[in-house]
Specification:
The chain is 33% helix and 17% strand. The protein is α+β, with helices and mostly antiparallel strands and 415 residues long. A hairpin with a 2-residue loop joins strand 5 (134-145) and strand 6 (148-155).
Amino acid sequence: MGRFARRLRAAAPSGRLPGARSAAALATVGLVGLTGLGLGGQLVSRGQASDAAVVHAPKAPKAQLAAARVIPQSTAAATVSAGQPTQAVLPSPSAHAQARSFGQIILPDLLIVAPQGLSRQQITRLGAIGGIRNMITFDGAQITAGGRSVSAIGVDPATFRSWVPVRTASDQAFWTALGRGEFVAADSAGHRLQLKPGAGYRLSGAISEVVTFGSAARLALNGVDLLVNQAMSDKLGLVHQVAALISAPGVSMARLTTAVSAILGPTGRMESLRSQQLPAAGTTPGTVPTTYLQLFKQSAAQECPGLSWTVLAAIGQIESADGTNVGPSSAGALGPMQFLPSTWARWGTDGPGQTGPPDVLNPYDAVPSAARLLCADGAAHGGQSLYNAIFDYNHAGWYVREVLGLAAQYAADYS
């Protein structure tokens, strides 16, 4: 069992959920927090806190927080009964639409858990910490699958996919399945539970639903087993906003954890994820990268020798994160590297392991294509040539300074 799951603890239920079950009866379902980091919480009515908010940094220098989507949901436990395939719930068209496009490129630094759920005040204070560029909150609960203890989280597929490894983020089928109401799993959990794609499994919490299993993929979140979308999380009553992921390039882990700890208090838990982003040594050219850093490094080396991978990383972060989605922007730009269709038609290329027409929404294609474009503008020569190439990418002096500043932070963090 991973650290994330080991820190789940039992939580005292309160309030009343829709349906015949009382809060006391729901206590027997086993509502606990994600044991790996102490995830817990109290049951609340579905009618409470149903508004949504998007917090992001403007496209201006010294932006502090980008793309932290907070959608409060109800809280409860969930139980998965792994058994014979049966009829599944119908897909949700609106949720399906959310997962059609890749969101943004983010390198997560810290995973945090608040056993009773993060309050709005805590979320606001976390977002105000200097150096935090992105933060996303999500629901979760320790559940059972076929009588075995596992952990599940409830997420918005359109935004959460930016926080997982690039290979998984690029797996459109995985996110489409999650968006339309199916549940998906970490690859290790899918293998351990012998889950079969297309089969239906009963998920029971505030209500009981038969839900189709979509697919499994690597999540790089230690101890997270299953994912459901926000609509299903609300139905099942997962613990509301009990965990968050934070990206803060350029901030030392000691400083970041000290600031976060002061806000979470003594019951909060944290786990550093920064070291997981480091690329494997000796990556063979032409192989499919498994992390964003590998993709940035390989793209720079192959498409523009002399260009630092950190510039690609900074452009990917600023272009897609500050917009909170893949576009189109006001100028019509698309994808995690924000290409205009006319520019993409000229410079778009298949990345490592990709076939067919280049896809502007696929980071495996978009990142090396950005390197090609920058190189054609002289970025490999550094100095003023690099400045001019970045300026050509987005015609604003502040943008160039923001990219170069963030690139320097990445170089310090991931050297």
